[in-house]
Specification:
alpha+beta; 4-stranded antiparallel beta sheet; 3 helices
């Protein structure tokens, strides 16, 4: 399984806050249910938590290409 997520990077003055605002407005524009899911995703700290909660094992560290993070993972049955 290949997990891909957007990473805005560190929040820097002005440009970083502008990026964060654009992301938030995009999430709001996607609808109430989507915004609820986005807030939950952010509250649980994103992909690392989803990976561990769903018995996935990361095969290698995430590789970042500009603002995109790629995480190869596989599902392993619990013993």
């Amino acid at each position: 399984m290949l997990l891909i997520d957007y990473h805005p990077g560190p929040i820097r003055p002005f440009k970083g806050w502008l990026t964060k605002l654009v992301i938030l407005l995009s999430e709001v524009a996607a609808g109430r249910e989507h915004l609820k899911n986005y807030r939950h995703f952010m509250a649980i700290k994103g992909l690392p938590t989803l990976v561990t909660e769903n018995s996935l094992v990361v095969e290698q560290q995430s590789c970042k290409w500009r603002s995109i993070g790629v995480v190869p993972a596989e599902h392993r049955m619990k013993p």
